[in-house]
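Retro notes
What went well: the complex prediction finally ran end to end.
Inputs used:
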Amino acid sequence: MATATEQQQGAGVHLLTGSEVMAHICRLADVDVITAYPIRPYDTVMQYVSKFIAEGDFDADYIPAESEHGQFEIVKHASACGARVFTGSSGVGWLYAMEPLAVTAGLRLPMVALVGCRALDDPGAFGTEHNDAMLVRDLGWMINFPDTAQEVIELGLLAYRVAEDPRVYLPCAIAMDGAFLTHSQATVRLPGQDEVNAFLPPYDRGDLLLHPDNPITIAPQANEDWLMEVRRQSSEAAKNSYTVLKEAHADFSKIFGTNTNPFLDEYMTEDADVVLCGVGTLSLPVKVAIREMRKEGKKVGMVRLKWFRPFPTEELRESLSRFKAVGVIDRDYSFGSPYHGGIVYNEIKAAMYGADKVPHLKGFVCGLGGREVLLEDVKQMADKVISMGQNDAADNEVDWIGVRG
Amino acid sequence: MAETSEYNIGTQELPLMGKVNAIPEKAVEEYFTSGHRTCQGCESALIMRLMAKAAGPRSIILGSTGCMYVANTTYYSTPWVVPWMHTQLGSSGSAATGTAAALRALMRKGKMKEEPINVIAFCGDGGGIDMGVSSISAALMHAKYNLAIICYDNESYANTDIQISGASPWGANTTFTPPGKKFRIMHDCWKKNIAAMYAVGHTRCNYVATADASYPADLIDKVRKALAVKGPAFVHTLDPCPKGWDYDPFYSHKLGELAVETGLFPLWEMTDAALTYTGISARQVYGKRSRKPVREYLETQGRFHHFVEEDYEYFQSEVDKMWDDWMVPGVIPFKVNDPSKK
């Protein structure tokens, strides 16, 4: 009789959670070294990974580590020795690994990690907030935010392909909304091994491989003599990631027969007057609310960013310039920042500065700590943006939606 | 029973020195060469040289933050002939595990040529006795990974200006524990008994030893045994540090000897679940050689210059306890109660 994992692993349509899809990516990508440490909600991926390994579905050295610091350091070093690696964390666990997270990017090691997005307790909270994943946005990490289990296939495989490209060699975080995506099942079409092999070449560390045949010294003391040049190279690598991602996405579309936009997911924008913007699983309530508002004659659409790093500045400027007004919904906070808005709001505002046609931009903070974003919440935000567009007047106030008191 | 630890890439056969005059004959090549900028009289640099000599060319060495990173490995003038990579202060255990795991996975899966490659991660006392304890402890659990952790202990955070660590001796004057008018002794903790702690707490770890660069043949042999044994191993070295201990660099070798001769730092190795004292320590344990007064060791160093008579006496009494009261002299710091003597 076939094992549970055998039944699940064939190409075709299955009912899977986001975490489970990520475990399948590890199997299909033939990952070599994986480390685990428990924290909700990312950790379900390791339950699936460990079961796959126990059943013999794929072969990897799988190490439950003693802390997140150890977890990320182990795979960092494995990556330097030419191993394809996977790990992950959530919330304050991700922050416990902040030191390895910083040096992994500094060392240009193509680690792929799952962030099961979670509030940074205290006070204790398991639910989704994006501040954990967003904390690596300035360090050289690429970050994507899938919104469905199906999209994890695209963004997970692209993560390995782009991270391991020698023009990039940067780590990539797959930021999955805790519970809403990590733990929610949906129908997913899993690709076959042949397609994945055609898309994803083996990881080749080239002349940077740490091996007795290539006796290099990695990460010596560079100090002010060289550090600025090293940082400049990282900046170039981050710039390259944009181009490489576009290339890789074109290959992905061809090999897997998909038809998506590499950076932006636009929904009902063709005739929209205003749009709501955001990342991750927000798209689900937003899209449903948009369908309902359309029945009332309100021309609302959505523009969702799939990748936060590299940030698709040109695509976003081109897209948002078409609308009268834009509302940016943040599932994160940036206390004391301009207009006390969220991270995505501030970033989009910066990207739009100097564009030929700049729409009015309004920020919203919503759904913190995993609080559900209700249809009424979305409609309330959309109405504010619609009225800003109709009045053609800037509204820099950042509103908290769905908050008591 | 199918275990995940079934596959082991094996270890290298490395001949032992036995005596110091065998070193020029059996281990000629240097793999830690010029280019470093450690202080005159630095015993930790000597540990690095002997460690690399012991390991040989088919090795990967990981170095956690500390003197032997900062002073040792400058861009464009690296002294390492073997592949070398920096790791974070608290992650020598993780670095060794990750490297060994990559080699094991890639060789098992046919992605890398199969051969035994030595994996060594070194750390100072900050990395091995304070911050890195949890990562080393985890590394010492995995029988499937052949790796050695070498802790070069110069008894302070010597690279950052001589601050107290969990390995600093009682009473030592460091920049974080300066003697003053109100408190003569600012550092009132006893040095951690780290090698024994790792040996006792990790039953899958088959080799733990203490060593000292004043006895180089013993040190090389202990590093080679740590590398030859299957699974993880730990070696703790005590390294006199002219800057941190405040003495003329001329006395480094002498102080290394005195640490052993006074019984303060007994030399031993644990292998196959059995403990063997080595060198002078073995003769001391079996009563063939007496211990020198610890005062001789303390008075040579500026970091103890504020000591008064009662401090020397207290220090000596604690060393005496190590030898007279401990269940295993200088190693296991308690005894078994005998209920009949109540």
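What we learned: The longest strand of chain A covers residues 360-366.
What to try next: split runs per interface for comparison.
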